[in-house]
């Protein structure tokens, strides 16, 4: 696949939230406000691309030559957790404005399965380093795009009259089903299958 | 008195504090791997093994693990169990492993596992932690299995891959249920039922 196709596939056709069902907890938890969604989205773009780069190099330079593949899960999650901690400390010191925008979302990202899933997927797909980074960028932009889109819907839903049993999460699920149905229409775009 | 309260862990996990339908955590595997009853049950058992195992080990080491480094220690314990599940499925159930795919290693970031270790097992004894883990995993497995059952029935008219003689569903199944929107819709409807009939005290 060409880099452009990889980008479009990860951004729209195989959107990580709506098509793959990954990263649903932050998606439903944070998308109640546009501003919080924006902070979360920015943090995901930043951490996902960086985490994919680091784990990809670690996997191909250490785990594969040393035949330590069974340590993959443990190493990846620990690397991501410490990377997030490092980024948080670095930002707090050097980039105050950026830190105040996405700072509180950084610790939450450690348990965001979208980050870990992305690092596993680029290895399962046997991508080159460049393609892996494009995939990570496309995936994280897709996450941000969908969470922003969805937060706009949920801000509107707050003022809608909904039957009590459907309030809160329930109507969010039903709305997600409709948005996801829309995204199903992207299947086959430029010959990219689901 | 003691026996009664211990049994309530099970009841709490399955109904009153059901991880998926009441606490709304661990949604990703629930929606992604409930395409058929067999897949749902497989994922449920795999996750249950990790939840119960990590609950027991965390409870055993709770006195020697300092408060400051508890989260990395939990993560190591959990990822050990996930690796065991990962390799066991690969060796003995290759077909199931292919279907579950990336969601097997992703059990490590399932909020239920870390949530129970932090909120319960780190502060309670081994037997209590085991029962709590058992209750929460039963609640999780039950919902994911139920969703798999419904989605498989509506889409293919089958039960565990066996024909039920409903030729109209087999020929013209509601394939929508197998696609991503179907999963969101089904869990929305289940949550609405829960909201209506089960009140949280």
Give the helix proportion of chain B (percent range): over 70%
Within the largest sheet of chain B, what's the order of strands? Answer: 1-2
Order of helices and strands of chain A: HHHHHHHHH
User: How many domains is the backbone of chain A divided into?
Assistant: 1
Largest interface, by Cβ-Cβ below 8 angstroms: which chains and how many residues each? A-B, 42 and 41 residues
**Low-pLDDT windows of residues of chain A:** none
Mind summarizing the main beta sheet of chain A?
A: none
pLDDT averaged over residues of chain B? 88
Distance between the termini of chain B: 21 Å
Put simply, the count of helices of chain B is: 9
Q: How many distinct beta strands of chain B?
A: 2
Compute the separation of the termini of chain A in Å: 14 Å
Indicate the proportion of strand residues of chain B.
under 5%
Helix content of chain A: over 70%
Tally of individual helices of chain A:
9
How would you state the average pLDDT of chain A, rounded? 87
Strand content of chain A: under 5%
What does this structure look like?
The complex is a heterodimer of chains A (194) and B (201). With 194 residues, chain A is mostly helical. Chain A has helices spanning 3-13, 24-30, 34-63, 72-94, 96-102, 106-109, 113-124, 129-157, 169-184. In chain A, helix 1 (3-13) packs parallel to helix 8 (129-157) and helix 7 runs antiparallel to helix 8 (129-157). The radius of gyration of chain A is 18 Å and the shape is globular. Chain B has one domain. Helix content of chain B is 70%, strand content 2%. Chain B has helices spanning 2-16, 27-32, 37-61, 70-92, 94-100, 111-121, 126-156, 167-171, 180-197; strands at residues 158-159, 162-163. In chain B, helix 3 (37-61) runs antiparallel to helix 4 (70-92), helix 3 (37-61) runs parallel beside helix 6 (111-121) and helix 3 (37-61) packs antiparallel against helix 7 (126-156). The longest helix of chain B is centred in the last third of the chain and has 31 residues, at 126-156. At the A-B interface, helix 2, helix 4, helix 7 and helix 9 of A face helix 2, helix 4 and helix 9 of B.
